[in-house]
Design a protein that fits this description.
By secondary structure, this protein is an alpha/beta fold. It has one domain: Alpha-Beta Barrel (TIM Barrel). The protein contains ten helices and eight strands. It has an eight-stranded parallel barrel with strand order 1-2-3-4-5-6-7-8, surrounded by five helices. Helix 9 links the parallel strand 7 and strand 8. Helix 1 runs parallel beside helix 2, helix 5 packs across helix 7 and helix 7 runs parallel beside helix 8. The longest helix has 18 residues. The chain is globular and about 45 Å long. Bound molecules: 2-phosphoglycolic acid (PGA). The site of 2-phosphoglycolic acid (PGA) has 13 residues, from strand 8.
């Protein structure tokens, strides 16, 4: 499977920064002389249209960082999946740990967002991961299983969505699990998907949390890893480009 490299820009930068980053990656991709992975850029909401416009005729794709489960209505400050699709998004992150933590998002709400995104023709990236405490207590698989099973709509197809395994303690901390730990957790997620969905083994599974140009090659060479969700390093042109170039398929 062709790997995915997704850049989550979070709440960073100006419109000028967003446009510059997008323009630079379009140029680099057009000049690349090797097969590239799927590359998805996720700017914050105000810059989505500007970035979508720049990526429009390129192989790069655009994703949002969140959506509301309803299409329209009295939801001040929210953005619906339908609206994201309307402005040219192809992907949307759902259930990122920063949303779970700061906006108290529940697995039930995340399932509704996932359903709304799929219904509108977006590919949601469902983020899962355990806290440091849960890992210390040996509850990693239990947490992930709960997050996964509660968020999965019953009739989901493997091509409909992606999973990003992001341990909370690895996000923005410089800490990462070992390759063996990532492999083990991915194996568990694949097993859960296969048991509970049709064709679940085909759902792409990404790793995220303190990915850098330096550690990306080790993760991307894991036999079953389908890509990376990158936060901080996706804002640095050369480093993100190194990560893209570390993809092995
Ligand atoms: P990080 O963030 O790469 O800065 O750790 C990853 C994420 O939150 O998706």
């Amino acid at each position: 499977m062709r790997q995915y490299i997704i850049g989550n820009w979070k709440m960073n930068g100006t419109k000028t920064d967003a446009k510059q980053l997008a323009t630079t990656f379009v140029k680099r991709v057009s000049e690349a002389n090797r097969p590239l992975p799927h590359i998805v850029l996720c700017p914050s909401h105000p810059y989505l249209m500007a970035v979508a416009e720049i990526l429009k005729d390129s192989p790069l794709e655009v994703g949002a960082q969140d959506c509301h489960p309803e299409n329209k209505g009295s939801f001040t400050g929210d953005v619906g999946a339908f609206q994201l699709k309307d402005i040219g998004c192809q992907y949307v992150l759902v259930g990122h740990s920063e949303r779970r933590q700061h906006h108290h998002e529940t697995n039930e709400l995340i399932r509704r967002k996932l359903e709304a995104a799929i219904k509108e023709g977006l590919r949601p990236v469902l983020c899962l991961g355990e806290s440091a405490e849960e890992r210390a207590q040996g509850k990693t698989f239990d947490t992930i299983s709960k997050q996964l099973l509660a968020a999965l709509p019953s009739d989901v197809m493997p091509q409909d969505f992606l999973i990003a395994y992001e341990p909370l303690w690895a996000i923005g901390t410089g800490l990462t699990p070992t390759r063996a730990e990532v492999e083990e957790t991915m194996g568990f997620i694949k097993h859960e998907l296969s048991t509970h969905t049709t064709g679940g083994a085909l759902v792409p599974i990404l790793y995220g949390g303190s990915v850098t140009g330096r550690n990306a090659p080790a993760f991307l060479s894991l036999p079953h890893l389908d890509g990376l969700l990158v936060g901080g390093a996706s804002l640095k042109v050369d480093e993100f480009w190194d990560i893209i170039n570390a993809s092995v398929r």
